[in-house]
UniProtKB/TrEMBL annotation:
Gene field: dlec1
Predominant place of localization: other
Gene source species: Oreochromis niloticus (Nile tilapia)
Keyword Zinc in annotation: no
One of the record's GO cellular component terms: cilium
Taxonomic placement: Eukaryota, Metazoa, Chordata, Craniata, Vertebrata
Keywords linked to the UniProt accession: Cell projection, Cilium, Cytoplasm
GO BP terms: negative regulation of cell population proliferation
Coiled-coil zones: none
Signal peptide region: none
Protein name: DLEC1 cilia and flagella associated protein
Entries under PANTHER family matching the protein: DELETED IN LUNG AND ESOPHAGEAL CANCER PROTEIN 1 (PTHR46348:SF1)
Keyword Cytoplasm applies: yes
Length: 1239
């Protein structure tokens, strides 16, 4: 029984084969292995698999199928396309399993995408593990819209997977809002509103405005037949436009309402990329609506039976007034429309026509005529009514005559649209205001109306009387009194002119001065402005002569003979100041006497100060100040004046003053300026100080008050802003060198450092900074002025630049961090290292350490920034072996920490951050522009860390190791740069607490050296010159030319039967001194030079043996060629080997054809027949060479003498190029018979 089961199991085992893993799912037990799934154990979670592989954590869902192929890219995207073109893109399908797989791709479903035949890495459409097959996907759009499709990829997995296809252009984006608000517009009007439309997207778009009810359309260009797209009451232009990215245009919307309602229309904006956007355009039509809100004083109702204008809506009456007076009323008119309305006022004559109650005015009675009286005005007369705001107007009534005035004020709006069939006039009378006003005469009253002076008054003595004038008018009056100034008398009113307000009175003085003893009755006239009749004042007065004892006449009497004359002395002795006038009467006995008028102006000395107080607003203790006062002589008499030397007052002892001039004479009616020099000896305010001036003839002196508030000495300083200096290192003169000899890196020199500062004087002090090293410097400039406390002026200076300079470039004023540009030239690929020596000078007082880094610059590098993270010191101090010196770094760190802590405790709050840096940073992060790729190949600087001693120099070596080019690259340009980061190892050099702080390393701009070189493959061009044939050797000359910019070191070689013989340099400027040599000779060919090389082909007999060898025995490079005519030749192929010094090899093919000639004789034998003994016979036999020139020689052998007269011999012809010799049989018979003797 068990045997039967075993046989049955064996039978089943023969049929139960292992399945090919490619046909099993990857998640099965014996399935193939995935290349993207790690082989480590899987830790199961609740909803998936958590896989740990090195530092990568990958989570796969529990039931997610394992992919067999991956598409790259995973989504095929087209982003830039236009209609009518076809676009292609390649995508790959990669086999990510460990078994070879078949694949099937189902094309896209839409007609816009098509797929080409796949390209497989092998035959039969099988993709090996890790390999990819490529497909080309074509895209032919018929519009600029978005497209989506997919490609189905069927594999041997459980189900197919899909590769999405997307086509979309970055859409153009317009800045137009969703709602375009046109605002308000009057019915019948047209409003143009402009909106700026900009395309802020990344692609060009063509846009079309169409009404929404016309969309969709098959071709929107057919809709844009006109410039405007209209949908009443709106129109949009342009209806079709194109905008490039960033381009803008103006979209104009026209709004023409016909009804008083809010209108809204929807327009569709269609883009040629099939995008559609609805935009609403809104606007509201309005009618004109004005309202008279208020009138100052209110509107007065008309009187019953009063005639009014037929069309006026409002009535305003002015109260009665006097002619040429002005009345105003304020009108407030409200604009109830949301629009600006231009207006102007017209003053018209009223349309007066009596109407019965309920009767409507006849249109023929309504006429429009401008008023001509010009008494009514409206201000402003023209302007613009603001939207929904009140406008104030002044209605002015200014009558000129005594009568009643009646007019109508029309408010006219301009540019008002009218709907048809209204008239086309754009001006509309929107409001009519009827105005009336009346006038009445002035009411003026004198109280009393006449002035009578009783009794008699003395002549030459002014006499005054008081009276009043009342103004009972409606407005003020302006008066002007006339003056009676006759030959004898003067009558006048004071004041003679002025203004009297309404219902007020004014007091006047009537002044009468007689000049002759008599009685006067007259009328004094007063003129009232705008009053047609003057006001008169009646005056009655009597004058008499006064007896005066102050005048005496010598002689007072006497006898005068006929026709004689006599001198009379009139003596006047006044007792007081007065204006004296009198008359002397001469009495003649028995004759007619006469009168003599006497006048005198009696005055005394009177001098005054035009300014009684002298103030010194700017006065300092101990410093003199000057001021001026003016003396004025008010009389016609000369006056003597003298200033007292000592000041008066309680505070006179605290100050002093001098006067210039201190005394003098003032002429009649003359003013003189006196210069007062005042000095205060205290800082107390001086208010009780006076200067006294005595004037001869005056009872009391003149007193000048002096007021001052002295100030202590004060000096102010004006300091400019911070200065950023660029370090300039040059040959310093001895003066500057002495300033910097202290070794602190900077010095300040002040000019002038001493001097005198005058009062209110400003003086600029130049502070010159000398420096020889970078850093941020802080110090104080101590300024001492007089007895004032010293002032500390802070000095802050930031110095940038590089003190180091290269010997080959010298110091620079600009771009100090830029070093020389080192050009290594062109070198052969893989050649020897080239080095340049650069000497760097340090003119400072400190040792400066340079840490060099070299970078390679790639022109295709798109990186913009470098993030540099440093742990500890970015450039630590290293020993000679390049190891970091930890002990010195820690010691410097601790010292810096102590110094900075001291700085923080002693410095002020204004100290900069660089001078208040805390302890050493553990981690520092720097962001800088991308320099290149850090590498010490092919450029390198040794030593990488070097210390330039103070006032000394050191040399560095910049080396270039040529690259080794690979593949088809023939030339490579190497661009690099070296950055030298400066550091200071000395504590005092890096920081002086509170004074100096210097950045180091990455915080400081490094020294830059640009490096340029080129690498070319070693290559020589050969030119054929000539062929020389000598015996068995053929020599061919070549010319080698070095077309590169670098010298080439090489040697020539070849293999037999070729050889190189005696190469010779040649060239017009060649300086090569290589002697002729054999194949192994090392040669040098300079740039753009040439050299002649001879290559020889040696023909030898062993070469001919190869003809008889079989194909297997013939060596490589040799071939036997059979011609059509049976001719044979040997072809020899070898290479001319050019061995360069960089171990590269250039081969030049050499080929030689060796023709194999054949010898042939024209006869096989020659029989001379019977010949006379002793006589020579000659026969000609032609030797033919078939195939080539050859050398031959003949040998006669096998001489046989059959008898004494019969001879035979064998002539053998040998040639080195013919293996088998050619023979010629010779025969001849001798005879003594003379008949055979030739003549």
């Amino acid at each position: 029984m068990s045997e039967g089961w075993e046989k049955l199991q064996k039978l089943k085992d023969r049929q139960s084969f292992l399945r090919n893993p490619r046909f099993l799912p990857l998640n099965s037990q014996q399935g193939g292995m995935s290349l993207i799934r790690p082989r480590t154990k899987v830790k199961a979670e609740i909803k998936g698999f958590l896989i740990f592989s090195r530092n990568i954590l990958i989570i796969f869902p529990a039931k997610e199928p394992i992919p067999v192929f991956l598409a790259k890219p995973s989504v095929v995207v087209f982003t830039d396309y236009s209609v009518g073109n076809i676009y292609e893109v390649c995508f790959r399908l990669k086999n990510v399993t460990s078994s070879s797989r078949h694949i099937r791709v189902i094309p896209p479903t839409t007609p816009y995408f098509s797929i080409g035949l796949g390209r497989f890495p092998g035959e039969g459409g099988v993709v090996a593990p890790g390999m990819s097959c490529k497909y080309t996907l074509r895209f032919a759009p018929d519009s600029l819209g978005d497209y989506k499709d997919f490609i189905v990829v069927e594999t041997q997995a459980e189900g197919p997977f899909v590769v999405p296809i997307e086509a979309w252009r970055p859409p153009p984006i317009l800045t137009l809002p969703r709602v375009l608000d046109c605002g308000y517009c009057l019915i019948g009007g047209v409003k143009f509103v402009e909106f700026l439309c900009q395309n802020v997207g990344l692609s060009t778009g063509t846009f079309c405005f169409i009404p929404k009810d016309e969309w969709p359309a098959s071709n929107f260009r057919s809709l844009a037949r006109t410039y405007f797209s209209e949908q009443p009451p709106f129109a949009v232009s342009p209806s079709l436009f194109v905008l490039q990215p960033g381009e803008a245009t103006v979209v104009e919307v026209v709004f023409f309402p016909t009804t008083t309602e809010k209108s809204c229309q929807v327009f569709t904006v269609v883009c040629d990329n099939c995008q559609v956007k609805d935009i609403s355009i809104e606007g509201e039509g309005q009618l004109i609506a004005l309202e008279l809100v208020s009138v100052s004083g209110g509107e007065e109702p008309p009187v019953v039976g009063e005639v009014r204008d037929l069309t006026a809506e409002h009535f305003i009456r002015f109260s009665p007034c006097n002619p040429h007076s002005v009345q105003q009323k304020k009108l407030v008119i409200r604009n109830n429309v949301h629009l600006e309305l231009p207006f102007h006022w017209q003053i018209m004559k009223p349309n007066l026509h009596p109407l019965l109650p309920g009767e409507s005015p006849d249109a023929s009675h309504i006429q429009f005529h401008l008023a001509t009286d010009e008494v009514f005005h409206v201000s402003p007369s023209t302007g613009i009514l603001a939207p929904c705001q009140d406008q104030e107007y002044l209605l002015i009534f200014c009558p000129k005559e005594l009568k009643d005035y009646h007019s109508v004020c029309h408010l006219v709006l301009r540019d008002i649209p009218q709907l048809p069939p209204e008239p086309s006039d754009s001006s509309v009378i929107i409001m009519e205001i009827e105005v009336k006003g009346s006038t009445e005469p002035y009411q003026i009253l004198l109280e009393p109306y006449a002035i009578v002076i009783p009794g008699e008054i003395f002549i030459c003595t002014p006499t005054s009387r008081q009276f009043k004038m009342w103004n009972h008018s409606k407005t003020f009056i302006c008066f002007q009194w006339e003056r009676i100034n006759g030959s004898c008398h003067v009558i006048e009113v004071e004041p003679s002119s002025g203004r009297i307000e309404e219902n007020e009175c004014f007091d006047f003085s009537l002044i009468v001065t007689g000049g002759k003893a008599e009685k006067i009755v007259t009328t004094l006239v007063c003129h009232i402005q705008h009053h047609h009749e003057p006001v008169t004042l009646a005056v009655e007065v009597s004058f008499k002569v006064r007896l005066n004892h102050t005048i005496s006449v010598e002689p007072s009497r006497g006898l005068l003979p006929p026709l004689a004359s006599c001198n009379v002395d009139v003596l006047f002795k006044p007792h007081s100041c007065q204006l004296f006038e009198t008359e002397l009467e001469l009495t003649v006995e028995n004759g007619t006497g006469c009168h003599l008028s006497v006048r005198a102006d009696v005055q005394s000395s009177h001098v005054c100060l035009l300014n009684c107080t002298l103030s010194f607003p700017e006065l300092y203790v101990g410093a003199s100040a000057t001021g001026t006062v003016t003396l004025f002589n008010q009389t016609l008499l000369p006056s003597q004046f003298t200033w007292m030397a000592h000041l008066q007052g309680k505070q006179a002892s605290l100050c002093s003053a001098t006067f210039d001039p201190s005394s003098g004479t003032l002429g009649p009616n003359v003013s003189m300026e006196i210069t007062v020099t005042f000095t205060a000896h205290t800082d107390l305010e001086l208010t009780e100080v006076a200067a006294v001036c005595e004037v001869q003839g005056m009872n009391s002196p003149l007193v000048l008050g002096i007021v001052a508030k002295p100030k202590k000495l004060s000096v102010s300083y004006s300091v400019p802003g911070n200065k950023e200096l660029i370090l300039f290192v040059c040959s310093l003169p001895e003066f500057v060198s002495s300033l910097l000899a202290h070794g602190k890196g900077a010095a300040f020199f002040v000019t002038p450092n001493t001097g005198t500062l005058g009062a209110f004087e400003s003086r600029a002090v130049d502070v010159t900074a000398y420096t020889d090293i970078w850093g941020e410097y802080r110090d104080h400039l101590i300024c001492k002025v007089g007895d004032l406390k010293p002032v500390l002026i802070p000095i802050h200076m930031t110095v940038k630049g590089c003190p180091l300079y290269f010997q080959m470039t010298g110091p620079r004023a600009q771009d100090q961090n830029q070093g020389p540009i080192i050009q290594f030239g062109t070198h052969v690929s893989g050649g020897d290292t080239v080095s340049r020596s650069l000497r760097i000078n340090n003119p400072t007082m400190f040792d400066i350490r340079l840490d060099w880094e070299t970078y390679n610059v790639d022109q295709n590098d798109c990186k913009l920034l470098d993030l540099v993270v440093a742990f500890g010191d970015a450039f630590p101090l290293k020993d000679a072996d390049g190891n970091e010196v930890l002990s010195s770094a820690l010691r410097l760190s601790s010292l810096n920490e102590t110094a900075w802590e001291k700085t923080r405790t002693t410095d002020s709050e204004g100290t900069s951050a660089s001078l208040q840096s805390s302890t050493k940073k553990l981690i520092s992060v720097h962001i800088r522009p991308h320099m290149g790729n850090l590498s010490d190949y092919p450029f390198c600087i040794t030593p990488q860390q070097i210390v330039i001693p103070a006032k000394s120099s050191r040399a560095i070596h910049v080396s270039f190791t040529p690259l080794t080019l690979s593949g088809a690259a023939r030339e490579s340009r190497c661009v690099g740069l070296a950055l030298g980061f400066m550091s200071l190892d000395s504590e005092l050099a890096a920081c002086v607490p509170g004074k100096v702080g210097r950045a180091q390393g990455l915080d400081l701009e490094p020294v830059r050296v640009d490096l340029l070189a080129a690498v070319q493959t070693a290559s020589i061009f050969l030119f054929f010159l000539q062929i020389v044939v000598r015996e068995f050797d053929i020599t061919q000359s070549f010319q080698l030319k070095n077309t590169s910019e670098m010298p080439l070191h090489f040697s020539l070689g070849t293999q037999p039967p070729f050889s190189v013989v005696k190469p010779k340099p040649r060239g017009p400027t060649s300086t090569s001194r290589n002697p002729p040599s054999a194949d192994s000779q090392s040669l040098v060919l300079k740039p753009q030079h040439s050299m002649r090389v001879k290559v020889a082909f040696h023909c030898s007999l062993p070469l001919l043996d190869q003809v008889e060898q079989t194909d297997e025995e013939i060596p490589s490079g040799v071939m036997l060629i059979h011609g059509a005519n049976g001719q044979m030749k040997l072809r020899f192929e070898q290479n001319l080997l050019i061995h360069y010094s960089n171990n590269t090899l250039q081969t030049v093919p050499l080929c030689a054809h060796l023709d194999l000639p054949a010898l042939r004789l024209s006869a096989v034998s020659v029989d001379f027949g019977l010949c006379y003994v002793g006589q020579t016979q000659t026969r000609e036999v032609n030797v033919y060479s078939c195939g080539a020139h050859m050398y031959w020689k003949s040998i006669t052998s096998n001489h046989k003498s059959i008898s004494n007269l019969f001879f035979s011999a064998l002539l053998v012809i040998h040639s080195p190029l013919v293996k088998t010799s050619v023979t010629l049989q010779l025969r001849g018979t001798g005879s003594f018979d003379e008949m055979y003797r030739s003549s």
